[in-house]
Each structure stands twice: as structure tokens, then as C-alpha cells.
TrEMBL record:
PROSITE patterns: GNAT. One of its GO terms (molecular function) is acyltransferase activity, transferring groups other than amino-acyl groups. The keyword Transferase applies. Residues 186-334 form the N-acetyltransferase domain. Pfam families: Acetyltransf_3 (PF13302), Acetyltransf_4 (PF13420). InterPro entries: Acyl_CoA_acyltransferase, GNAT_dom. This is Protein N-acetyltransferase, RimJ/RimL family. Keywords: Transferase. It comes from Salegentibacter flavus. The lineage of its organism: Bacteria, Pseudomonadati, Bacteroidota, Flavobacteriia, Flavobacteriales. The keyword Transferase applies. Signal peptide: none annotated.
Length: 334
């Protein structure tokens, strides 16, 4: 196996899966998969063994010797068996960003498409963010595979841009969608006017409404009126959580007195199950204390069937002070 001079580590693993510098022995499998999946690739003609050999012995071989190559390609393995290939392409070492490329064994797509895409993205993040310290990675995809966007968003990538009729493909123009992820830690910031549509989508999400006290559908007009009133209300502190630059949830504190604030928070369903609810509540309170140092007590109501939220309040040492038939009240002095 060849090694990249641009990388300190050569193998990146997640359980039984790993990515390693692209292996010459995998070149004909890769050729086969690319030819089978030309419909979504920027590839205009079928590859042949001669063309593939030439590509590997010239273009790929040269990548291993460069300290700042234009692309870093990997074989994606289960154990030692190649299941796909891809990597970082169009690497911009000055602005520190790169496009993501990945295809898997065509036979895996029907049943395991999302699994392998998410798995590969997690592995590639180790290279992009931890190994070569890129600022941003992104996908540039023809609008042909809806399942791809589901997988990308589940991996924490945010939709950035849609380029209308960007590419001429099979005698027609098709759109391109770009999703991106930033090399940032979790960050809590003030909600902005531009977050209107994002918060509206959360407010009407079926999974969010399941544990809301008001389960009625909300119109955009109703939400806009409520949203802007909260931003203008001096007795409301409204924050948004971003995970690596992608909006993941919000928390709001409505001040009833200078020293008391009521909590309302939610997570984007794509980010549940990752410990972010605890992070949002704990660090949201910390951010509140920085902005409103006179607040001494916070409290919130939770439906009894909302077990994950109940566990979060309990974990953060909130006191349960009511025993209503349908909801619980938690409070904490800060």
C-alpha cells in the first residue's frame, strides 16, 4: 500500500470499517462501479482497463508524493475488502476547503446506501478536520438521488445552495445541490432575523410537535408574528445551537421577573440521540447567565411521555416540583 506524504496517519477506522490510501489492487473494481454509475458522475465515457491503468500509474501515483495534492483518494474497506472509494477532491489549501467524492459497490446501494454514505463521511471527517485541518468540506451533487441528501443531512451536513440548471446531462439541464460541514465546535449564538424559515420548519416538524404542548399546525404568518415579537421582546433571550456550523436546535428563556426565566428548547430531529439536548440546556443556561446575570432561577415544563427531556432535566440536577397528570415541572437555582 502506498502512503500519502500529505498525511501523518494513513488508516482511519470506525469499527470494522476504514479508509486507506487508494489501493492499486482495487482499480478494476472501481472502474466497474464508475461505469455502472455514470448517470450521477462527471464522467463522459466508459472507462477501460487501459485508461484506468494509465490513471493509476500517472495521476494517482503522483498524488502520494505531493505535500499539498489536489485530491486525496481512499479505498473504503470492510475488514480488508474494498466496498467503495472516494476522498477529498478539488482541495483548496489556501482557503482550506474541499469537495467530497464517494461511490460504493453498486450492489450495496439498494439496501445499504445511507449506511455506507454516513459511515464514509464520518471517516473522511477525521482526515479533513483532524488530520489536515480543513475549514469546510462539501458535496456537489446532481439532483438525481434523493436518498443521498437524507444520508448527508443525517451526517450533520447542512444544505447550502441549489444551482438551478447547472449541468447539461442526457439532453437536459439539471440542478446541483451543495451541502457543507464546517470544522467548528458546538456554538450557541443569538437567534437572528434570518433564522425565521429555519425555526418555522422546526416548529412544524412532526417529531418536534409530538412533544409540544400545542400540537396544531402553525402557518408561516403565525410563526413570523410570534418569531419577530420574541426577537423584539426585551424580556426574551432566544438562542440557537450550531454543530460544526449547522443549526441543530434552539433554546428560549422568557423572563417573568428579573430573576426568573422559563425555558423552552428543541432539537432538530436529525441531531437527537447524540447528547446535544443536555449540551443545549446546560450551555444555554450558561449563555443566559452571561447575558442576564440577575437571573437566579430557571424552570421548564415537560410532558410526561417526553422521557428523553425528563432525563436531561434530571441529569442537570433540576428539581421536580409538581406532579400534574400530564406534565412535570422542573426548576433549578443558578
Amino acid at each position: 500500500m502506498s502512503n500519502y506524504k500529505s498525511l501523518k496517519n494513513q488508516r482511519f477506522s470506525l469499527g470494522n470499517y476504514s479508509i486507506v490510501p487508494i489501493r492499486k489492487e482495487d482499480r478494476y473494481d472501481i472502474m466497474k462501479w464508475r461505469n455502472e454509475q455514470m448517470y450521477h458522475l462527471r464522467q463522459s465515457e466508459l472507462l477501460t482497463k487501459k485508461k484506468q491503468d494509465n490513471y493509476f500509474y500517472t495521476v494517482v501515483a503522483d498524488l502520494f508524493e505531493q505535500t499539498q495534492p489536489s485530491q486525496i483518494l481512499f479505498s473504503y474497506l470492510e475488514g480488508e475488502k474494498c466496498m467503495g472509494y472516494g476522498g477529498l477532491v478539488h482541495i483548496n489549501w489556501i482557503d482550506r476547503n474541499a469537495e467530497i467524492s464517494f461511490i460504493m459497490n453498486s450492489s450495496l446501494e439498494k439496501e445499504f446506501f445511507e449506511f455506507h454514505w454516513i459511515n464514509f463521511l464520518k471517516l473522511l471527517e477525521k482526515v479533513a478536520f483532524n488530520e489536515i485541518n480543513l475549514h469546510k468540506i462539501y458535496t456537489y451533487a446532481f439532483d438525481l438521488r434523493p436518498r443521498l441528501y437524507n444520508a448527508i443531512e443525517q451526517a450533520g451536513f447542512g444544505f447550502e445552495l441549489e444551482l438551478k440548471e447547472q449541468c447539461f446531462f442526457q439532453e437536459k439541464y439539471i440542478d446541483v445541490k451543495i451541502h457543507s460541514k464546517f470544522n467548528k465546535k458546538n456554538e450557541i449564538r443569538h437567534v437572528k432575523f434570518t433564522d425565521l424559515y429555519l425555526t418555522y420548519s422546526w416548529a412544524n416538524d412532526q417529531k418536534v410537535r409530538e412533544f409540544s404542548f400545542n400540537k396544531d399546525k402553525i402557518t408561516l404568518k403565525e410563526h413570523a408574528s410570534w418569531f419577530f415579537s420574541k426577537l423584539e421582546n426585551t424580556n426574551s433571550e432566544y438562542y440557537l445551537l450550531e454543530v460544526q456550523g449547522v443549526a441543530a436546535g434552539s433554546i428560549r428563556f422568557d423572563l417573568e421577573e428579573e430573576s426568573i426565566a422559563k425555558i423552552n428548547y428543541l432539537l432538530d430531529p436529525k441531531f437527537t440521540g447524540k447528547g446535544l439536548g443536555t449540551y443545549l440546556l446546560e450551555n444555554g443556561i450558561q449563555f443566559l447567565m452571561e447575558n442576564r446575570p440577575l437571573v437566579q432561577m430557571v424552570y421548564g415544563y415537560v410532558l410526561k411521555e417526553n422521557i428523553p427531556s425528563i432525563k436531561i432535566f434530571q441529569k442537570l440536577s433540576f428539581n421536580e416540583i409538581s406532579n400534574d397528570t400530564s406534565e412535570l415541572k422542573f426548576e433549578k437555582f443558578i
